[in-house]
Amino acid sequence: MARAVAAVAAAGTVGVGLAVRAGADGAFAKYAGSALYTVLLCALVAFCAPRARPLVVAATALGLSWAVEFAQLTGVPAELSAHSTAARLVLGSTFKAPDLFWYAVGAAAACAVHAGVRRRA
After folding, report:
1. Per the confidence metrics, is the pTM higher than 0.70?
2. Above pLDDT 70, what percent of the chain?
């Protein structure tokens, strides 16, 4: 059951991300996208480790998000993104320090929702 909830959460997060991208622009869309990136990673981590505690799931997703962002300082993601739309969506291309904060916001929000869902189950 936990995997099914995580899969629905992942699909819903992608849907929300697409809606934000289609209906908003500027700083809101940019930073909402950053937060939703980590929310999606939380759902994927929860799918892979359905018994993991919400804080562990959120910390893992946040660590992955930060690792991808810091990897952008190497230029490797930018090179891969120049050749692949999938790489551009997953890895991005340019380091932006404010994204680090918004990843934490997404992790905190996902952790709160995950904990609430677990309490109800």
Report:
1. yes
2. 100
